[in-house]
């Protein structure tokens, strides 16, 4: 049942629930199409609430019976929930509902995947399991009994009983319903143990389908490393006797932090050298850490309401980034994060979907699990840490855990612990949570009498609903280099608080070169009119690894823009600078591989748009091809050396060193393939004994328009493995020539293995289509109409995944009127589809600016 008019929820309307919950008992009688859920909930009036309306959320439930204190009642039931008259005193609510997990294709609530029952309750899925006050500030202990004839029956907390066909679980830690989980199936465990620093012995299990046992070891190691790291760095210990992780093939997101029972998309946990790439291993390590870290930042301290989502997600992303920096290379991680922020968050912040890190209204909360809330939310914490210092940050976090353990909190609570720890007034800093849009930082320089003056200006363009912007607190890390490349001023954090401010560096012998926004100290767009020569100087000498990389990136972007706009030839400063860096074998191979990266074509489109030009996707594509070809020729002599440096001794390991070497080798192979027509890639493919090499070699063969044979062989070799087949589907669309991209994607949707109801498989093809910039934006609109058609088909089946993928159209206003018309037509076609979900309706109308 759906509302005719969508309702908007506002942060300012928050009121507490009228009742407190002393305990929740749930019994599940599992059956594919008629699962019975019986709930017993002890309610009592909430002394802190004024509104005593007894409303329980409930959707797609069939109410069998309900009683209060043992007396049957007949509540008023709508498509959204029920209301009932209740006593003005503690009472026991009992209800039984029937649900149909076997037909739950939306993958929210209780659903089935390959014969296994599993749940996804965040954000508002618990209301599809039983009637309940489904909001994060309502917390209770849970006891769960599962009746079902499946070998493995799991829920949150500790096991408290089991027998033939049943199991009972008790979770002693009060939690909101979104952290509830249940899993039942024919699963096998990869077991291990962990002893916490205070001596608690924890049983760890990674549960997978029979056949996947060989893909568990890496995830388990990542879990133990995460548990140890959170003890060492944040002083946080695990708090139950068991920790279970389950891998499931049908899952909308990456993974979910349910208390004591994390549920993972199998792509985010299962790994083996033969089937997973280095990038897969790195992502798995990060996601395991992320979900584990939520046990403190999210579960022990949760969110008061969904507007506070960044309280747990921004902080937990920040924590998992710290973990990855510690486990691998800090500069490489920082560069990856900057690339990711620019690729995913900047387009959001600077387009029709722009919203603050803490939004103030929404129609469908699922649409706000965004790069802004997550990644910009994490950046905001990084800035706070930079401003107060590491020691104060550690103290503030201790205070946060002490003061708020067991509570459902707000951003105000979070900032208050920093104010109380440091005495600092964070009123202006708080604008990072309320103002949307990416600040632009412009820099001008002045030099006179030994004094170097930097003038920094900030401005943020208007965003939907926010015409006027106030200055934000921007930590700008700056260092100065002398003419021979020595650092004449070490990194210092300038605090920009006004619209415009000048900072002076005195007593300098010669005019320095400024290295600005070191370590990417704030999520802003830096506009610094450095000459090519200055950028080349920084590329050769900057002592800050991030900015050294950035100098190369800026040179690459400048030359690409000139090639696109003025038909210029590739810039010699860029090619020579890159060559020098590649030659320097004291530099980490992973870092040199990153140096070989280019801005994405979508980023170039944004840069052109910002400079008042209309981006032509085909012109962008050709410029990138030309620059790549020129680079290959320019560094040709170095390629054999890079290939040999990338050689790895001994057995495959996904660690930072080995994967860094493979990344450099792969970047060199990409260039070599432009010179030898794919001959070397064919050899690498033939000899590959791990997925990283196999897949990179295949991709360069495909780009050389060779590789038909290998593509077919790959299919034969891996058709039994779903996760590898996702790669096979995606790669063909990613590597297709622009003109052939829509047709390639379309043909793949007709493949017998294109199981479009599986989110991973759908995304493999349609996500790759949307990401192939020149292919998606073919002038005839074939890419747009193909994607829109599939989104319309998927919406009634899985609204959440459909809505997320609508963001492929968020940049539509950047392009020429022809493409704009085509995209508007497709967006309207989606919008006008009868019975469109609330999720997709909201996304499409925001993108259209309606
Ligand atoms: N809590 C989320 C999972 C989630 C998101 C559930 C939205 C329901 C709706 C989880 O902690 C998470 O953030 N997962 C990320 C991966 C993480 C490493 C950023 C995901 O699933 O992509
Ligand atoms: Zn999370």
Characterise this structure:
This protein is an alpha+beta fold and 850 residues long. An 8-stranded mixed sheet has the order 6-5-9-3-2-12-15-14, with no helix packed on it. A 5-stranded mixed sheet has the order 17-18-19-21-20, covered by helices on one side. The chain has a 4-stranded antiparallel sheet with strand order 10-11-16-13, with no helix packed on it. The longest helix has 22 residues, at 545-566. The chain binds ligand BES and zinc ion. Zinc ion (ZN) binds next to α3.
Q: What labels describe this entry?
A:
single chain; 850 residues; alpha+beta; binds ligand BES; binds zinc ion
Spell out the blueprint of helices and strands.
Blueprint: E1 9-10, E2 19-29, E3 35-45, E4 55-57, E5 62-68, E6 71-72, E7 76-77, E8 81-83, E9 91-99, E10 109-113, E11 116-120, E12 140-147, E13 152-155, E14 158-163, E15 166-175, E16 182-185, E17 188-195, E18 201-208, H1 217-234, E19 242-248, E20 255-256, E21 261-265, H2 278-293, E22 302-303, H3 309-327, H4 330-349, E23 361-362, H5 371-388, H6 390-404, E24 408-409, H7 411-422, H8 431-434, E25 440-448, E26 451-459, E27 474-481, E28 487-496, E29 500-505, E30 513-516, E31 525-528, H9 532-541, H10 545-566, H11 572-583, H12 589-595, H13 601-610, H14 617-634, H15 639-645, H16 656-676, H17 679-687, H18 691-703, H19 708-718, H20 722-735, H21 741-749, H22 759-771, H23 773-776, H24 782-794, H25 799-805, H26 817-831, H27 838-848
Parallel strand pairs: 2-12, 18-19, 19-21, 22-24, 25-31
Antiparallel strand pairs: 1-23, 2-3, 3-9, 4-8, 5-6, 5-9, 7-8, 10-11, 11-16, 12-15, 13-16, 14-15, 17-18, 20-21, 25-26, 26-29, 27-28, 27-30
The structure holds ligand BES and zinc ion.
Zinc ion binds next to helix 3.
């Amino acid at each position: 049942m759906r509302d005719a008019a969508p309702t908007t929820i506002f942060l300012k309307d928050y009121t507490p629930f009228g009742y407190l919950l002393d305990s929740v008992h749930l019994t599940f009688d599992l059956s594919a199409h008629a699962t019975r859920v019986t709930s017993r909930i002890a309610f009592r009036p909430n002394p802190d609430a004024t509104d005593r309306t007894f409303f329980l959320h409930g959707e797609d439930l069939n109410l069998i019976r309900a009683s209060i204190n043992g007396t049957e009642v007949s509540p008023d039931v709508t498509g959204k929930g029920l209301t009932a008259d209740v006593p003005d005193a503690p009472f026991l609510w009992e209800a039984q509902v029937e649900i149909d997990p076997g037909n739950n294709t939306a993958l929210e609530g209780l659903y089935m995947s390959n014969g296994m029952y599993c749940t996804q309750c965040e954000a508002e899925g618990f209301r599809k399991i039983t009637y309940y006050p489904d909001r994060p500030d309502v917390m209770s202990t849970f006891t769960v009994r599962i009746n079902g004839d499946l070998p493995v029956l799991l829920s949150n907390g500790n096991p408290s009983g089991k027998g033939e066909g049943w199991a009972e679980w008790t979770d002693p830690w009060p939690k909101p319903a979104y952290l509830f989980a249940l899993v039942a199936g024919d699963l096998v465990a990869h077991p291990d143990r962990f002893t916490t620093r205070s001596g608690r012995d924890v049983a760890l299990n990674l549960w997978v389908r029979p056949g996947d046992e060989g893909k568990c070891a890496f995830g388990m190691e990542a879990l133990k490393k995460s548990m140890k790291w959170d003890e060492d760095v944040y002083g946080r210990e695990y708090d139950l006797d068991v920790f279970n992780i389950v891998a499931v093939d049908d899952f909308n997101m990456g993974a979910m932090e349910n208390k004591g029972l994390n549920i993972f998309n199998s792509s985010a946990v299962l790994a083996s050298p033969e089937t997973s790439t280095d990038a897969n291993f790195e992502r798995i390590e990060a996601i395991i850490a992320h979900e584990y870290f939520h046990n403190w930042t999210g579960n022990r301290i949760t969110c008061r309401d969904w507007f506070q989502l960044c309280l747990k997600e921004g902080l937990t992303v920040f924590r998992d980034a710290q973990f990855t920096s510690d486990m691998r290379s800090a500069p490489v991680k920082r560069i990856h994060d900057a690339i990711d922020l620019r690729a995913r968050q900047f387009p959001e912040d600077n387009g029709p979907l722009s919203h603050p890190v803490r939004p103030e209204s929404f129609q469908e909360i699922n649409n706000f699990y965004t790069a802004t809330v997550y990644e910009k939310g994490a950046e905001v914490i990084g800035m706070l840490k930079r401003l107060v210092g590491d020691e104060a940050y550690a103290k503030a976090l201790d205070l946060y855990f002490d003061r708020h353990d067991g509570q459902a909190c707000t951003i105000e609570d979070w900032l208050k612990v920093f104010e109380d720890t440091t005495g600092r007034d964070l009123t202006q800093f708080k604008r990072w949570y309320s103002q949307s849009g990416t600040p632009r930082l412009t820099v001008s320089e002045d030099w006179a009498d030994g004094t170097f003056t930097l003038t920094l200006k900030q401005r943020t363009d208007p965003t939907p609903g926010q015409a006027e912007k106030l200055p934000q607190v921007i930590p700008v890390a700056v260092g100065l280099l002398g003419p021979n490349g020595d650092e004449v001023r070490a990194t210092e954090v300038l605090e920009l608080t006004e619209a415009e401010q000048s900072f002076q560096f005195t007593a300098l012998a010669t005019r320095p070169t400024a290295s600005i926004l070191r370590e990417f100290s704030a999520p802003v767009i830096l506009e610094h009119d450095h000459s090519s020569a200055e950028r080349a100087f920084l590329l050769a000498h900057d002592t800050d690894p991030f900015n050294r990389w950035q100098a190369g990136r800026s040179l690459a972007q400048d030359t690409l823009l000139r090639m696109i706009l003025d038909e210029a030839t590739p810039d010699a400063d860029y090619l020579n600078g890159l060559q020098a860096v590649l030659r320097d074998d004291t530099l980490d191979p992973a870092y040199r591989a990153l140096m070989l990266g280019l801005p994405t074509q979508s980023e170039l489109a944004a840069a052109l748009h910002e400079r008042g030009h209309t981006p032509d996707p085909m012109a962008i594509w050709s410029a990138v091809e030309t620059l790549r070809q020129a680079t290959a020729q320019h560094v040709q002599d170095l390629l054999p050396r890079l290939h040999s440096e990338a050689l790895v001794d001994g057995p495959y390991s996904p660690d930072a060193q080995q994967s860094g070497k493979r990344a450099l080798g792969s970047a060199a192979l990409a260039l070599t393939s432009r010179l030898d027509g794919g001959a070397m890639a064919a050899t690498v493919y033939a000899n590959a004994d791990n997925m990283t090499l196999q897949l990179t070699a295949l991709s360069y063969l495909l780009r050389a328009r060779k590789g038909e044979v290998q593509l077919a062989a790959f299919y034969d070799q891996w058709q039994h493995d779903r996760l590898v087949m996702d790669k096979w589907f995606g790669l063909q669309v990613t590597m297709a020539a622009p003109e052939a991209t829509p047709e390639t994607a379309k043909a793949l949707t007709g493949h017998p293995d294109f199981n479009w109801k599986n989110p991973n498989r759908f995304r493999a093809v349609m996500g790759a289509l949307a990401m192939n910039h020149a292919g998606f934006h073919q002038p005839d609109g074939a890419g747009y109409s193909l994607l829109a058609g599939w989104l319309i088909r998927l919406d009634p089946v899985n609204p959440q995944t459909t809505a997320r993928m609508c963001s492929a159209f968020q940049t539509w206003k950047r392009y020429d009127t022809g493409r704009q018309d085509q995209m508007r037509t497709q967006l309207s076609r989606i919008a006008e589809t009868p019975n469109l979900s609330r999720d997709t309706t909201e996304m499409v109308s925001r993108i259209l600016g309606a």
